TrEMBL record:
One Pfam family linked to the record: TrcR
Protein name (Swiss-Prot/TrEMBL): Cytoplasmic protein
InterPro entries: TrcR
Spans annotated as Disordered: 80-100, 174-250
Biased composition (Acidic residues): 218-227
Lineage, opening ranks: Bacteria, Pseudomonadati, Pseudomonadota, Alphaproteobacteria, Rhodobacterales
Amino acid sequence: MAKLLHPKATAVWLVDNTTLTFKQIADFTGMHELEVQGIADGDVAAGVKGFDPIANNQLTQADIDKAEANPLAKLKLKFNPAAHDEDKRRGPRYTPLSKRQDRPNSILWLVKFHPELADSQIAKLVGTTKPTIQSIRERTHWNIANMQPIDPVALGLCKQTELDAAVQKAAKKRAAEGEAMSDDERRKLLSTEQSLEMAPEPRMPTAIEGLETFSLSDSDDDEEEDNRDIRDADSFFNLPGGDDDEDEQP
């Protein structure tokens, strides 16, 4: 599907050179109607030079005239054969030069923490080749001793949603194949949203762990001590008997 080139600059040109409504311009450029109104008021896109959609083969004058005569009419992007299927990306993802040195570290992270991902999925996520992934899996990469696993999302090599989608796809594939997974492997297959929604497991403090059933005395002794009659003052205070008092008198 072809996309409009320079939508904001195109909106600036349409505001300045046509009598189209804000909604018509917003629908054509993919912007919000209030944003187009901001362009007309001078609050948005200040200093942006207008981009002529007619001269750049995106609209025809007849389409603009028709839309100006009918406020309910919608502008349609002119078909350009050269832009057909431009959204379909072929081959590995393009990685900027400034981030290419970190790409092996991200591959090592994916191989370590998501071994269920196929080489094709990793290649699509970070923009690499299968031989490179295989060398890191087998630890035969020339720089494997100096590599550190780093999250590709933190490096900006892919989005978290893309990583979650790849992990979920791998989870469905393994479930369809009927492979048994450990608890750690099953936990790795959860997306970030699912992990955040899970309730934390109740844990006992490590200082008292294992002491929940510990007791210093037997239960029978506790019952006898509880049943003892402490209403007898002599036995409670361990006072001397009356015979001792008579002996002390002269």
